[in-house]
């Protein structure tokens, strides 16, 4: 079972949140994401994609704060999605010292830069906002371990996918995970950018 070989703090969080068993997607995806491979996770809504990614991210960061620069970046479509994902992460990190930060276009970039400078572990952002942080030296990627896009179907919008691919050019090495309901041609073309040697997990 994918929930067995987890950090004790994660096991405690799963018990506290009354998550007793893995979904079909989680059974397939968690071990493969844990291996460090680039992954396309394709499954319907309510299949446990986001929870699988949260679990893997926290496990990869060993449930503890470290350094100042983010070690995980999560991309979402907009402010509303950022807030929802931030809340979900906090449910799992409640009794750890992991620092989860949420940035979005409506929040002034100078405020974000000053708050990120204080030290974070997990950064949640929109593609355009992240690109702006990169262009203004507002975030360091020197410690980045994992980069994932939640509900990535929105990337069919040209401006969003361009922001993402441009940002990826600055990242030398990390694991990428794309979560979506369908692997449409635009998402599939990410193999030409940063999703090299990727595995598709489809439920």
Description:
Pfam families: DEAD. The chain has 203 residues and is of the alpha/beta class. It has one domain (8-202): 3-Layer(aba) Sandwich (Rossmann fold), CATH 3.40.50. 39% of the residues lie in helices and 14% in strands. The chain has a seven-stranded parallel sheet with strand order 3-4-2-5-6-1-7. Helix 2 packs parallel to helix 3 and helix 6 (127-135) runs parallel beside helix 7. It is globular. The protein starts with 7 loop residues before the first helix and ends with a strand.
Protein structure class = alpha/beta
Largest sheet: 7 strands, parallel
Question: Roughly what is the average pLDDT, rounded to an integer?
Answer: 94
Shape: globular
CATH superfamily, by name, is P-loop containing nucleotide triphosphate hydrolases
Could you tell me how far the N terminus lies from the C terminus, measured between alpha carbons in angstroms? Answer: 17 Å
Strand content: 5-15%
Total number of beta strands: 7
CATH C-level: Alpha Beta
**Quaternary organization:** single chain
Cα-atom radius of gyration: 16 Å
GO molecular function: ATP binding; helicase activity; hydrolase activity; nucleic acid binding
Protein name: RAD3-like DEAD/DEAH box helicase
Domain Helicase ATP-binding: 30-186
Keywords: ATP-binding, Helicase, Hydrolase, Nucleotide-binding
